[in-house]
């Protein structure tokens, strides 16, 4: 076994690893995470955002250890929690969350074994497959511990307190990515009082469920700051205009690569099946291999090649229309709310075809020299909808509400916080955007284009 070591980290200073953890990060399956960026192509707008799942995983392991100490978790359980935190992202595919969306589209969940829940996320199933079947992991930590880690990341193991450290509204994953993404993007949106938050966390006995992670009454303000940090980083970084465009271009490249270009390698990558051959093929792919493989001359003329080349050279599609859903005719709103969902791909394609015609016609009719259509192919026009949730809803994310310990009472954070009591949970904003292959010569031309296309696009969407 390797000796314990310390690794320099720009966020936490030093991350201490045990001998076993050091051995784990030296395995090929973990080193693969060095080649998967945390935020895909966010570096096209935040040049420093080139950090990877590798350093994020080290950070999550470190935070999980600190949380375990704050909550007085036993040394044995702390070791387990740290290992789970270290390995939690092994199932990420190329460009991180982009792969999650495509896996969900092309995996036939009805064909999966009955013991697999249809609601489980595919990249989490792949993480479980890797932990349970990878020979290096089994050799280093044993089959029994691999099974415990897979259970902890999946359904929970033993005390729910352990589960909350690796997956919950205050988990180590969120704490690391808020601080790490802020650091590498060069912003302050995700900063929160890390040490104060940990000081005020509590492990509280619950007669029905066992120990639960809660926050003390004195920690409410630190928790408010944490929740607001998550909200601001989401709205200002993860939903930045360029980030949304690049994510959609990547997704479209893979979808067209499968459906139109008929590239077998992409289909094999994203059509999950729970067998060892699939996992062995999956882990061969990373960001670099996708770009190198499908931008070579062999695929020239294919949509996948064209879109990936655009991303490589920062020749991005442009935002030509943006509206809140409630600014559009009422009769089209229900369809628009669902237009980005996989089951509405036919409707989306039809709408994009209509928008391609109206945008090209409008720009050509006006004969503006400073505004040009670079490509009149409907596949290069993208309609995308997304929601900015109320910060009160964001406080829970997909998990249960955070509880505040107040003497013998346990109240929901949103009901204790004066700040969050004043926020209407039902208030959320749903936006529709259109991205198109247009070119312009100046900011003034961009504004002119926006004004020029506003009415015809709005009418096209409304009539659709």
Description:
With 464 residues, the chain is of the alpha+beta class. The chain folds into 2 domains: 5-240, Hypothetical protein af1432 (Orthogonal Bundle), CATH 1.10.3210.10; 317-389 and 428-464. Helix content is 53%, strand content 13%. The protein has helices at 19-25, 28-31, 53-70, 75-87, 97-106, 122-133, 135-141, 143-154, 160-166, 172-185, 194-199, 220-238, 241-259, 264-270, 276-282, 287-294, 303-312, 330-338, 345-366, 391-394, 413-416, 418-421, 443-463, and strands spanning 5-9, 13-17, 201-206, 210-216, 318-324, 371-373, 382-388, 403-406, 409-412, 429-436, 438-440. It has a 4-stranded mixed β-sheet. It is globular, with a radius of gyration of 24 Å.
Strand content: 5-15%
CATH top level label of the largest domain: Mainly Alpha
Number of strands: 11
Rg over CA atoms, rounded to whole Å, is 24 Å
Main beta sheet strand tally, sense and closure: 4 strands, mixed
The CATH topology annotation of the largest domain reads as Hypothetical protein af1432
Query: What is the count of distinct domains?
Result: 2
The CATH superfamily of the largest domain is known as Hypothetical protein af1432
The general outline is globular
- Which stretches of 5+ consecutive residues score pLDDT under 50? none
Widest β-sheet, arrangement of strands = 3-4-8-9
For the record, the CATH architecture of the largest domain stands as Orthogonal Bundle
What is the average per-residue confidence, as pLDDT, rounded to a whole number? 91
Report the span from N to C terminus.
64 Å
Structural class: alpha+beta
Tell me roughly what share of residues is in helical segments: 40-55%
Number of helices: 23
